[in-house]
Amino acid sequence: MTRATTRTGRRPGSSGTRDAILGAARSRFAEHGFDRTSVRSIAADAGVDPALVHHYFGTKRALFLAAIAIPADPAMVLAGVADAPVEEIGERFLRAVVGVWESPHREGLLAAFRSAITGESVGLVRSFLTEVVLTEIGHRVDDPAGSAALRASLVASQMAGLMVTRYILELEPLATLPPERVVHLVAPTLQRYLTGDLG
Amino acid sequence: MTRATTRTGRRPGSSGTRDAILGAARSRFAEHGFDRTSVRSIAADAGVDPALVHHYFGTKRALFLAAIAIPADPAMVLAGVADAPVEEIGERFLRAVVGVWESPHREGLLAAFRSAITGESVGLVRSFLTEVVLTEIGHRVDDPAGSAALRASLVASQMAGLMVTRYILELEPLATLPPERVVHLVAPTLQRYLTGDLG
User: Fold this and answer.
1) What are phi and psi of A12, to 5 degrees?
2) How far apart are CA B61 and CA B108, in angstroms?
3) Which of B149, B154, B174 sits opposite A153 (nearest CB)?
4) What sign does the CA torsion over A43, A47, A51, A55 have?
5) Domain range spanning residue A43?
6) Which of A32, A121, A164, B99 has the most neighbouring CB atoms within 10 Å?
7) CB contacts, 8 Å: A174 with chain B
8) CATH number of the domain enclosing A40
9) What average pLDDT score do residues B33-58 get?
10) A84 shares a domain with A182
11) pLDDT at residue B120, as a whole number
């Protein structure tokens, strides 16, 4: 009922309020991570009612994605990965992520990544990778039990480096390969990290 | 004879001259790359005699490493890789580079890398990776002929990402694994990129 009230008939508010919420969200998420941050605490920092946060941004997850300037929800991007056969999960994951990189979202993603590298939002990107993205695939690859975090951080190492060398350093020939060729070349690496015997 | 003259009995000059040479070198290398930049052109930009450049920095290669703030000469770091059996080249390369990362050189390397990511010295880091490092190993892995550049850029993608996730984003558990464990986990990726069938 409360939600319906806040969503009905309200006109867009001032961008100042929206920015204050985003700023508070960035600070909270960067310091405490995604799971341990509440919408209530962000609202308090921004000096607004929690209902207003939901009005502007929807869920806590959507607020996080807005705060980190990630324009695509990983749950949607990775929807096709969740039900992939486990032996194809590396290729499906890579194709989904490269698909976002090759879309108009690229600039926003690179900006978020650059901020993390220069220290402005390391905490945000770390939370994004470990708490949001990994939720989507971690449960599929936790074999032996407890190995999912290591597998995921290895995957992140290849993905982060692929983004850096292809789109930022623009190393040739990697920078100009067709996306599907990149998937073909790198997918076996991800598959080994996700499901291989790591010794 | 000229060289002997410039190196004999000369006292260290002002740091202003040294900095002018370094600044000119950074601009030249970033714009034209390593191979197509001459010590003479750098000296001209800095308004000094080329002999003075050699006096301060030694070879063009050493000047490049100083310009990019790379504190360890890749030729020395990779000396043990050049004569490794080809089936061990991935592991040897990774162990050599991780060894530098785990040394006091780390901060300088991370600084150079951050500068590249934020656009200040993309050209420098690209030259370092493609013209300097790859010279050390490219000829070992150019099979089939012409594949060395692709193999090298794939290796760079994993190495750049490993540096980012372990030392900058500090993703766990990758960030705190013993170096030798990292080598064990990632070496097969590099070996496939260097000598595997890339299809």
Assistant:
1) -55, 135
2) 17
3) B174
4) negative
5) 2-67
6) A164
7) 150, 153-154, 156-157
8) 1.10.10.60
9) 92
10) yes
11) 67
What is the pTM (predicted TM-score) of this model?
0.79
**CATH for B175:** 1.10.357.10
Is A154 in Cβ contact with B174 (below 8 Å)? yes
Tell which residue, B122, B105, B6, B109, has the closest CA to residue B56: B6
- pLDDT digit string, tens, across residues A104-148: 888 878 877 887 777 767 877 887 777 777 777 888 899 999 999
Compute the nearest-CA separation of A189 from chain B (Å).
6
- Together in a domain, A128 and A43: no
Q: Would you state the structure tokens that stand for residue A183, as one six-digit string?
A: 């998937």
Together in a domain, B140 and B93 = yes
**Chain B: closest CA distance from residue A154 (Å):** 7
Kindly state the helix (H) or strand (E) to which residue A41 belongs, with its residue range. helix A39-46
**Which of A44, A67, A90 marks a domain boundary?**
A67
Domain count, chain B: 2
Minimum CA–CA partner of B121 in chain A = A169
- What is residue B83's predicted lDDT score, i.e. its pLDDT? 84
User: Inter-chain contact A170–B118, Cβ cutoff 8 Å?
Assistant: no
